[in-house]
Structures are given as structure tokens and as C-alpha cells.
Amino acid sequence: MKPIINIALEAGIPESAVDMYGKYKAKLDPDTIRQHVNRPDGKLVLVTAVNPTPAGEGKTLTTIGLSQSLNAIGVRAIAALREPSLGPCFGMKGGATGSGQAQIIPADEINLHFTGDLHAITSAHNLLAAMIDNHLYYGNALDIHPKKILWKRAADMNDRGLRSIVTGIGAGNGEVRESGYVITSASEVMAVLCLSENLADLKVRLSRIIIGYTYSGQPVTAADLNAVEAMTVLLRDAIKPNLVQTLEGTPVIIHGGPFANIAHGCSSVIGTRTALRLGDIAVTEAGFGAELGAEKFMNIKCRQTGLQPDAAVLVVTAKSLKYNGGIPVKELDREDVQSLQLGLVNLRRHLNNLQKSGVPVLVAINHFAGDTDAEIAAIVDECQRLGVPVELSKVWAEGSAGGAALARALVHLLESEVTQYQPLYADELPLTAKIEQVITGIYGGSGAVYSPEAKRTLTELQSNGFGHLPVCMAKTPYSFSDQSKWLGAPEGFMMNISRVSLSAGAGFIVVETGNTMTMPGLPRVPAAERMTLHPDGQIEGLV
Amino acid sequence: MKPIINIALEAGIPESAVDMYGKYKAKLDPDTIRQHVNRPDGKLVLVTAVNPTPAGEGKTLTTIGLSQSLNAIGVRAIAALREPSLGPCFGMKGGATGSGQAQIIPADEINLHFTGDLHAITSAHNLLAAMIDNHLYYGNALDIHPKKILWKRAADMNDRGLRSIVTGIGAGNGEVRESGYVITSASEVMAVLCLSENLADLKVRLSRIIIGYTYSGQPVTAADLNAVEAMTVLLRDAIKPNLVQTLEGTPVIIHGGPFANIAHGCSSVIGTRTALRLGDIAVTEAGFGAELGAEKFMNIKCRQTGLQPDAAVLVVTAKSLKYNGGIPVKELDREDVQSLQLGLVNLRRHLNNLQKSGVPVLVAINHFAGDTDAEIAAIVDECQRLGVPVELSKVWAEGSAGGAALARALVHLLESEVTQYQPLYADELPLTAKIEQVITGIYGGSGAVYSPEAKRTLTELQSNGFGHLPVCMAKTPYSFSDQSKWLGAPEGFMMNISRVSLSAGAGFIVVETGNTMTMPGLPRVPAAERMTLHPDGQIEGLV
């Protein structure tokens, strides 16, 4: 592992823009970088994937490996990734730092407290919560309806007992009311931070956060509670992107990690812009499969900021296609070209969607040890038939060497094709039309069935001046539909819209299909029970 | 502000022991320091005070100023202080970094997230909480009685709504039960961390934490839940002491900040030992007045670790003595030698207590602008009459120059007198006898009146093998008694013991007189509402 200051200096970052957090992590000052680094912004490449399956597709892995490979062939590339949440590491999840020869390090520190960003977000979220209850306690001058408070508290921990709670019990402890916790990644403060261009924009967005409604139905904002400056104080350092490195010393910016269902699932705008300023290519990713991650990347993050993807890399695996072709998880190790070919419908629809967005696409086949030549050939053949460039990626086993062909293909694509990116829908389109546009245009469904509550909320939001916002769909990531078992490329289904809510600070309308879990639980035997801290400081069982 | 690496190197700390957190904060590796710094440990000086009053006595200020002054007269001194809690900074409190010319910097960073220690403690605390509820959810193999769970959750925020809550509401969300939050400084994990000698000791202490009882009344520990290693993983960096500097560039170790009522109110043992290794004098402090802070410093921290104070500096102010002499807060600015002389009873009892402990004492009169010569003379005269060295300290106005006489007097005291320190009571003494020893020997009371519950708990603890532990008294800091209005030096009172509990991890018995608040609330207009973050990153309204 190289000292992070060396990584920074090699990446052209002025020393004055670097704040060390230990020897291998740093925070970067984006303003200083913008002032001192005079070069045109690089190209923006989005890594996305087919629908996720239990076998794992390796989207983060490919992002890391591709960045390494680009550097190995002489292209200055920087990866811009999401920041892991601490809580899930003690449950089931194994961190979010890649694996094999395509890893980000120091993985343990990144997966734990890292540079404190999530703790800062938790604090800012909970300060607002405390100020709400304090306002009720001291006379409720704003006339907030205690049963119409939407703002919960946040914790970066998997704790199902906190999903639904009653607070304020006992004399002198304020208003007794129902509330609950979300995990920090699901906090609107996280989404706000990730979409903010700078501190001033952060304040504007925090100001807009609606915490609930008055007795007469008027929205109450964080600004109304005078909480915005203090929340920004808590986020002063968290808004700065973090620099780490891959196993091969490729610079990686990790910053922000919002949920990919009730939020947009992309790392921070500031992180992306910093990577673009420093690299000839900035490689970033978005949560879940392309119908969720890429759609939100383009229709929320790019729409709000003017960023646009110059190319997309769609990650696919033989296993994922076999799974989408009907093979159960336990039998995915067996060669089955026929099932794989059935599963290609999933790949085709994602490709078609990306092409409709006007973004040049490259398919990356993330290679697993058991994949057979016939399976790989079937994927390659299909891509060639469709006229889409495709390369095998062996970055897990071989690091940059295993992704050299992919990297060259990407460079070729960027040189030969210019993005025609355009968002899926116009701001002016009514909210229901936007929802239906996503369902019919991306998911392959026929339309939406709204719950009475969802219908009412959409009407209210439309008439209250929020109709111009993009929609943020929360649905199962395992299917194009809202039924996790409908694999492949289901068609003709109606999508059930259960609930609609406004993230006014982040600037999108959350559209839920079914119940979205915003506070995970621990499994029967949590990963926490299998961890060991050795006397030399090494952690066993974390990643 | 000097780069912290320079401060570290000047203090003799090897570069390999320093992990930067930005340019002006660092974490130190105590093991590396112990290996590389070969010099005898310095002298340990405890700064304590008369009973606190609303006017403020300046104990932290004096600790900082005295350290500066010692360095100014050529003595290598290091201050070892408590780490502020973030929550209260958004309520009423103005941080814990001194003021005037005796400040620790960067005050804003220290008072906010600092190096993340409190966040790590919060996480470790809440992981254990989540594992308890998860254990109940998955069948409760340990047979834990849900209504006998003592372990609450923790947050570093003033939030009265969280004092008493009901968790686990709703299908699939686990056991519905009463619980609550404590502020992080009141977490037993904080006390444990501060009393631990190293990672191995930390694990032993965490293992002992009793989270509640089974249906058959057996204690259930963090070890029973397999939570200890994962908690230690979360605390891996938090156990390392932090280095900052004063306005004059004096090195200051800030590490740990447990409550001074239900815990022992001292900065970490590891921080103290590091300061002793690096300095000829380590200047530290303890919470509240000497009857709480110094008593716990000696009978808990020193007892458990073998540390012993070579001298004590007792901070007094003219205002505090006038207040103890019966003058109301608003009239403290007026000269009143007669009332001050009445208030000297408070000083005398503290001096007497410290002398009984065998520790050489020096009185520091912390000077306020409005103090008159006659008032100062009255204090000096009394000390001289008692044969106790006394010096005026003007470190607030003048920095090290204002504390030079105090520093010289301290050096003289250390050279001329050898500590005869001995703890107030023996480990073998029964718990009730220990409590009564503190009440009669330190507080000036006549004895204890136990609530039936307290009596029962003491009997149980004594017969369950916890009788050897020291007692940690939780009482009002404003009086020697349990009545905050009984100023001066009340005598002959009986102390009401309302509740007794075991902090098995920390290794003491908490003895409460009245209700102890472990989760503060925000005031009517919280400091948060008056804060501003300026575009240059400067924070207004935080300290």
C-alpha cells in the first residue's frame, strides 16, 4: 500500500488540497483542486449491470478493475465509487470494496468508520430530529402536527427493533409520538449531500427538506426550524470527497452512498466532478441493475447537474444469464448454454434501454472460474449479432491484465462514438406520465396501478408545485417488474404503485412499489459474532 | 497553528507513532511510543477545583494555561484532557477547549467530530444493543428476560424524546419492550475505554459488561452475546489517544470523556500514561469539584491502574467563594470580602480532603477581571494560614506569562514534597462501608439513608462477588451534600441513596443520590439555531 499522499501527488492533486486521515486515506478539497488543476474534464463512464442475482455480478469489482486496466494501458483513469455503510458489515454483507485482484484498500478502514462521513450524516439527521421534538416541547410555535411528522431518526446499524418506536414517554420528556429509525444510507441528508454541488447548494437543499406538516396541512421545513446552518456545520468535512487506492495503486474517490431504492444510489456529484477534473476517464457506478441504477443516474443525477455519461459499461455474467433463464442458484455452476440463451432476454432489454438513452454501450462479461467457453461464446455472439462491443473481463483473477482488452475497447468506443445522451422524460411531463414512461420505456410494463393514497399524493404534489421533479422508483432490483420472481424480461405487466413521497431536499419524488425496507435487521448469526481483532490490529471476518 | 506533526516531533514522539487526521489533529500509537521513547515517566499532576458555581471556575482553563506556563519556564509538560461530546455543543454548552489565552485548538474540530472516537463508541454501544434484540428475535437461547434488559442505546445528541422509548413495534420488528437512550459520554463503553490499559484489557472489560438478566436472574454479559470482538473492532482506532495543541503550541492529549456522575469523569488511562511517558509533568483534570472528580480520580482510576498523583492543583475563584458565602449569581461582580470569607469553608474542606489523601496541594486562584485586591488577599491569607502554597493565575488574560508563578510553585512543590497518596478505603471494605466512608470522610455528612431498592441491590452485589469494587458516587456537583442549594460546607446531613447499579465492565458500583440525567435535552433556543457556517469554512456560534 502506497502512502495516500503519493497517490494524490501522482494523480496531480496539489498537496494543499489533501487532508490525511491516517496514512492511507485522505479528504480532498474540491475547490482547491478546481483552482489548481487546469485541464479539461475527462470522459464520464458509467458502469452498470443486468439485474442482480444471488450469484453476484461484480459491478463494483468491474469498476475497480477497469480503472486499474485503463491506467495499465496508459490512460489516466480515476474511479468514483459509493461509500459503504458500517451497519451492514456487522450483519451479512461483506463490505463494498471489490475482491480478488480488483480491490480498494484499506478495505477494513473503508468499511468501518472511514473518514467519518456517515457518522456526520447521522449526526446532522439526528440534530434535526432533536430540534423537531424540542420545538414541540417548547410550545410548538410552528403548529406542527405531531402525528404528521415524517422525519425519523437515523442510525448506521442494522437494528430492526428501531424500525417503529414510540418516543417521548415519561414526564418531562416531550410529546409522546410514533416514530422510527432509518439506516443512515436511507437518510435524505445522504441523498442531499450526494446531489450537492458545494456547501451553498447543500444549504439550499437542506433548507428544502420537509419534516412534516402543520395542523392546517402546510409543509414544515428544516429551514423553518433554523436547523440548516448547524446541520451544515456538522457536514462541513463530510462534503469533501475521500481518496483511497486500489491494490494496483489506482486512485479511487469514494464519497457518499445513498440507498438505491428510496434514493438515487449514486456516489456524490462532488466526487464525480473531482474524478472528471483529475482523470482522462472517470469510471463510476450506480446501484442495482441498469433499469434502476442507470435510469436514476441519468434521470436524477445527470438531470440535476448537467453531467452526462460518455459511455456505459454493462456488466453481465454467464451465471446471471442462466439464472434469468430459469436455473436455480444451486445449479448455476453447471454449463447450460440453452438456459443462458433464454436469459439473454435480460441482457437485451438492458442494452436496448441504454441505447435508447443515446449512450454508447460496451458489454463486460465478468468472468467466473467455472464459466465454459461455450457459455462465454454465446454471450459474445449475441452482442456481436446486436452490434454491441463486448469483452471478457478477468479482473478478479488477474487485476489490470485481465481487463486490458476491456479497457482498450472502452477507449476505442469513447474515441469513435459521441454520446447522444438525453434524459428519458422532460421536466414538464406530469408525475404520473413520468412514472408510466419509466414503466413502459424501461421496465417493459404496460402501465401503473396506483393505490388511492399514492394517487392522492401525486395529485397533491403536482398541484403544490413539485410536478417538475424527476421520479425515484423504489422497486425490487431482481426483476424489471415489481415481482422479484419474474426474471428475464417480463412484459405486459401493470406495476403497483403503493406509496409516493417527496424528497424535497434531494429534489425527487419517491415512488414505491410494495414496502421498502429502510432499516435492515441482523441475520440469525450476524457477521459480528464471527469477527476477531488480532493483537496486531488485523481484523478477521469483516470483509 | 503549527502542523501537528511538528508538535509531535518536538514532543519526542516518533513519526511512526503518528496518524494524521487533517493537518492539526493526530492519533498516537501508544505502543510505538512506549517502545521508542526511553525515559522515566514524568510526574502526574491533577487539577481539580472547589464546588462548581454558575460563574465558572476555569479548571480546564487552568489545566491548559498551567501546561503552557510550565513549558514557558522550561519544563516539558503535556496536558491530558477529556474529549468533548458533540451533542451538548448544539444545546447550551460552549465546548470544552478552554478560553482566552489558554485554549486548545482547533477548537471547532475538537468540539465536533474530532477523530471520531465518540462516534466509534456510539457504534460499539449500539451494535451490542442491536445484537441483544436480535438474540430475542431469533429464539432467545440465553433466556434473557426482555423486561430485565439494562442496556439502552446511545446517541451523541441532546434529545430528551429518546430518554424513554418503546422499541420493536410492528410485525417482524422483534420484541416490543421499554428502553431508552443515554448520551454517548454516559455509555459504559466510554467508561470502559477510558479505564482500559490496552486492547486486551478493553476486551476483558467489554466482556464483563452486564446487559441484563435471564428469567432465572442470572446476569447476561456482552461476552455471552459474542459481541466483544466486533465491539473491539469498532473501537480499534478510538482506543488511541489524540494529539492537539494549545494556542502556544503546547502538546495536549485529548482522549475519552466519561460522565462525572454515573461514571468516573476522567480522561483515558492510555492518554494519561502517554502524557507521563512524554512529559516531565503530565497535567490532567477530573470532572466537577474535588469531592467528586478528585475522589473518583484517586479511588477509581488510580486504584485500578496503580497510577498516583504527585500533586494536586486546586482551582478556586473569588466569585466561587462569594457564591458559597451566600451571594447570588447576579451580584458576584461586587466586591464582598466578608461573604468571600464565609465561603472559604468550601475551600477549606476540599483542601482538607486532598491533604487526607496524602497528595501535596497547591491552590490556584483563577483570576477574573473584576476581582479586587482585597478579595485575592483574603484567599491568599487563608491559604498561608493553613500552610498551603497558593498562587494567582492569570492564564485567561495573559497565557503562559500569567501562570508562570503558578508553574514555578508547582515545580517547587514537586521537588520538595513526595506524595503519600493512599486511597480512601480498602478494596475489602463492604460496599455500604465504602459509601459511608466517602460521605463522612469527604462530603462531611453523617451517614447514608438507603432506599429499599438500593439496599437490596447492595446486598445482592455484595453477595454476588462485586463487593471488592470501588463506588462511583452520582450526586449534585454544586454541594458537598445531595442538596444542590446547600453551599459552603454543610455538615451532619444524611445522604439519600436512591439507586445502586453495577458497571461491571468499567469496574465500579454506581451509587445514585436522586435521579441522574443521562440524556440531556436541548434548551428553548438551542445553540444550533445561532450557528453559521461561513463560505470560508469558519464556524460562528459553536464555541
Automatic annotation (TrEMBL), chains A, B:
It catalyses: (6S)-5,6,7,8-tetrahydrofolate + formate + ATP = (6R)-10-formyltetrahydrofolate + ADP + phosphate. GO terms for biological process: tetrahydrofolate interconversion. CDD domains: FTHFS. InterPro entries: Formate_THF_ligase, P-loop_NTPase. Pfam families: FTHFS. Its EC number is 6.3.4.3. Keywords: ATP-binding, Ligase, Nucleotide-binding, One-carbon metabolism. Gene3D superfamilies: Domain 2, N(10)-formyltetrahydrofolate synthetase, Formyltetrahydrofolate synthetase, domain 3, P-loop containing nucleotide triphosphate hydrolases. The keyword Mitochondrion does not apply. One of its GO terms (molecular function) is ATP binding. ATP binds at residues 53-60. Pathway: One-carbon metabolism; tetrahydrofolate interconversion. Belongs to the formate--tetrahydrofolate ligase family. This is Formate--tetrahydrofolate ligase.
